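Imidazoleglycerol-phosphate dehydratase: structure, please.
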Amino acid sequence: MEMRQITVSRNTLETQITVTLNLDGTGVSKFDTGVPFFEHMLDQVARHGLFDIEIKAVGDLHIDAHHTVEDVGITMGQAFAQAVGDKKGIRRYGHSYVPLDEALSRVVVDLSGRPCLEYNVPYTRAMIGGFDVDLFGEFFRGFINHAAISLHIDNLKGQNAHHQAETVFKALGRALRMAVEPDERMAGITPSTKGTLVG
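Here you go.
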């Protein structure tokens, strides 16, 4: 399998973002977004997905973090789609259950070529530190629309909002890791009866 590493930049009047992604990394991350709790969550994806992720984002944080978080999702989705390539020889599907103390989340992913998000996380509070939990939904929508994947996220239990969020992002990393892993029995084959996973 070829090297699955890519750098993608996206520049608008609201944000300037560069994402470097290596799907076959070791879980190394480097973030400079100006949104610390969001970076803590992205680090979970890198660490538990064994992806190397570097993100530099300059956004209109004087307004709020909405554009920055959403546009990081968009740019990460673009990078993910390009790094995965034609999807031949990969598992395509991934899933993970992750607990953290009282919290438990399930994430299931299909690299289907069709964006779909089912997102069910009843956060127990609206803010985690200075981070508005509504922005996680914007991140996931940006990500799936540009990665062209189906993503089901369910927080099954949880009383601490930090724990709820962390289990979601850890499970996301592990589910994506499973989905992009090479499948020796599918070497050179697109894992679809249609023969394509593009659109």
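Notes: The first helix runs from residue 36 to 49.
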